[in-house]
tRNA threonylcarbamoyladenosine biosynthesis protein TsaE
Amino acid sequence: MKISTDSHEKTLILGDQLGKCLKPGDIVLLFGDLGAGKTTLTQGICQGLGLNKGEYIRSPTFTLVNLYQGRIPINHIDLYRLDSFAEIEALGLEEYLFSNNVSLIEWPEKLRQESDPSGNLGLGIEERIEVRISIKEKNRRTFDITVIGQNQRSLPHIL
């Protein structure tokens, strides 16, 4: 499903709608360049998961993982600063990923193992929702949302 937004506010609304569709244990991978809108979309997703609108969501670039309480607990993970899959393995992210929390992961391309020529994600992530964000113009973004895995489900038309 491809959806375009042309403002910060519409990206928040898209995230809110997506958040309302998520279930315990869902893993959402957020792909996109710096400034693409990953954290803005995450803020909206957290609103859709019942986080208080006044609660501040920031990218966990330095802390690596932020935890939030919504109707489903949320793991917000940022892999930007990590240089290798070995560093990711050392963090013990499996504890977060394979829980009943929703996990939102920025820079998930870092999960690809250098030694795996197929490009599969490491840590056993098979069931997931991938969101690929493209910058089209200054405020215009395109979100390509795909559900991947054996238990694929369709997301309702959200905008």
Summary: The first helix runs from residue 8 to 21. The first strand starts at residue 2 and ends at 5. The CA atoms of residues 99 and 120 lie 21 Å apart. Helices lie at 8-21, 38-48, 85-91, 94-97.
